[in-house]
Amino acid sequence: MSTISDDIVTSSNGLGYTSASATHPETMVKPPAAPSTGEDTIEIRLEFGGGLHLLFSSKPKHAIRLPRFVPGSSSAQPTNMRYLVKWMKENLLSEREEMFGDGDGVRPGILVLVNDADWELEGELEYELRDRDEIVFISTLHGG
Amino acid sequence: MTPNTEPSSSSSYGERPLELDEYVRYGRQMIMPGFGLPGQVELKNAKVAVVGAGGLGCPLLQYLAGAGVGTIAIFDHDTVSLSNLHRQILHTTDRVDMNKAESACLALRALNPRINLISHPVAITPSTALSLLSPYSILVDCTDRPLTRYLLSDAAVRLNIPVVSGAAISSAGQWAVYGGSTKEGKRRACYRCIWPSVLAGSGGNGMCEEQGVWGVVTGLVGVGMAGEVIKLIVGKEDPEPVLHLHHLCSNPLIRTIRMKPPSAKCIACGPNATITDDLDTFGYESFCAGGPQLNDGTGNAIGGAGDRLSAKDLDEILRPANGGEELDVVLIDTRPAVEFGICAVPGSTNIPLPDILKNPSSLPRASETIFICRKGNDSQLAVEALRRELSRAESSDDQKSRVRDVRGGLLAWNREVDQHFPIY
């Protein structure tokens, strides 16, 4: 029975979770671990909703590691959203770049959330990422 | 005052703002601190327009009527179908084919005869939106396509009223209050500020008819929207505008995010807005078009005469008496596996369209390949992919393989060949 309901959920294009929380509770309710201080990389959690996971190998959740500072920056520029979007285009995007990117940013119609706030409230491309930040990309839904 | 002018609204001890039975009817919400008689009177005086009496509209309307929203206008030009009833819970089996606005009014009158229900069995268009919606102070968008969503948002900006807008597809939903101003006088972003363009090709563009939807997901979103409407009316709205995102299998079940303020670049509500009261001049059709559309079984997109089969032709080919086996025909059903599992033409093989498009060379070889799908759209894309593959792979002296598809798909199969074939 659980297999049946999981199949229904898997075909979802909404926030696009690949499995029910019941089958992988550890990924859903993991308590925050101690921040990985002292390392030269930071962990970023990415999530795609509204069908956008189709642009990223149909995987709705990704955990990635980025350098703490933008590589090659002369004055130790902390890694920001501008670097993340560029990194995603080069390393994570499975479809054509214009399906996701627009200049340094993302296409109009894609809403970017930084830890549960519209990224425009957080500095947009200039927002400096912190370890274990959660970045969500969603598009609007139309059904009703 | 004439004797029959609601004698119960006043007594020798003065005027009462509600009828006596309304004190009982609404008592359980009125006794909450911060709600009280003033909140109930606000509800009674409120005038709300709800567009769409479907999956979102039904649960929303049920709670607005139950709570005592005094005037509710319901706009819907569509009629009730049997496939609506798993989620559009105000309609009934008896009322299939009735207009949805009329059907919803029947249910709501039975629930609460004290409120004023106005049924509009018409579509809202760019030329009628402002005049139809101007009597109302809150607009609720329970529609199911981009065109009406942008039209309603633009109309609300022109009328300077808030829109409570929600959407649901598959197991996900989202809803928010857009436009208008908060109690503190802060302007909210309009729908266009947050979603400035339609993202063609994204999964969220789909309709419930094609992608499916959980009844409880439209239910939860509709009830969430009703909560926002009631909060607006009784002055309990969120001080900072927020957007709610729901997925049936996420934890937490609802993620609430802070929305940005209105966009200075917005063409509807920004300082250099180009959208005016003359909504008819904004090209909603072209703004919302998500690329070329293949539609129904006419087959005008791909293939000329003789390249497509009717369902009757397919029936002839498949009949053993006509040598279906010896003819070396393979019939491929391009629907998703879950739909193939619901019903399929005997003898057909299921290879979903994405697999066909990804790797047409892996399809089984036969002297004739026939594709079939639900409506006759995806099968045309499969035909195109296989023909391209064959013209690349086959040398000129090979015997040519024939590739065709069934016009009108399984709907035509049901209509023309087997009336007991399930249609879903």
UniProtKB/TrEMBL annotation, chain A:
Record key words, sorted: Cytoplasm, Isopeptide bond, tRNA processing, Ubl conjugation pathway
One GO term (biological process): tRNA thio-modification
Localization annotation: Cytoplasm
Chief subcellular location: cytoplasm
Post-translational modification: C-terminal thiocarboxylation occurs in 2 steps, it is first acyl-adenylated (-COAMP) via the hesA/moeB/thiF part of UBA4, then thiocarboxylated (-COSH) via the rhodanese domain of UBA4.
Keyword flag Transmembrane: no
InterPro entries assigned to the protein according to its UniProt record, in alphabetical order: Beta-grasp_dom_sf (IPR012675), Mopterin_synth/thiamin_S_b (IPR016155), Urm1 (IPR015221)
Superkingdom to which the source organism belongs: Eukaryota
Pathway, per record: tRNA modification; 5-methoxycarbonylmethyl-2-thiouridine-tRNA biosynthesis
Gene Ontology CC annotation, any one: cytosol
Residue ranges, annotated region (Disordered): 16-37
Protein name according to UniProt: Ubiquitin-related modifier 1
Gene: URM1
TrEMBL record, chain B:
GO CC field: cytosol
Domain Rhodanese: 328-422
Claim: rRNA processing is one of the keywords in the record: no
Matches recorded under InterPro entries: Rhodanese-like_dom, Rhodanese-like_dom_sf, ThiF/MoeB/HesA, ThiF_NAD_FAD-bd, Ubiquitin-activating_enz
The organism's place on the tree of life at top rank: Eukaryota
Protein name, as recorded: Rhodanese domain-containing protein
Short name of any one Pfam family annotated for the protein: Rhodanese
UniProt entry tagged with the keyword ATP-binding: yes
Record key words, sorted: ATP-binding, Nucleotide-binding, Nucleotidyltransferase, Transferase, tRNA processing, Ubl conjugation pathway
Source organism per UniProt: Kwoniella newhampshirensis
Predominant location: cytoplasm
Protein's cellular compartments: Cytoplasm, Cytosol
SMART domains registered for this protein in UniProt: RHOD
Biological processes, Gene Ontology terms: protein urmylation; tRNA wobble position uridine thiolation
Gene Ontology MF terms: ATP binding; nucleotidyltransferase activity; thiosulfate-cyanide sulfurtransferase activity; URM1 activating enzyme activity
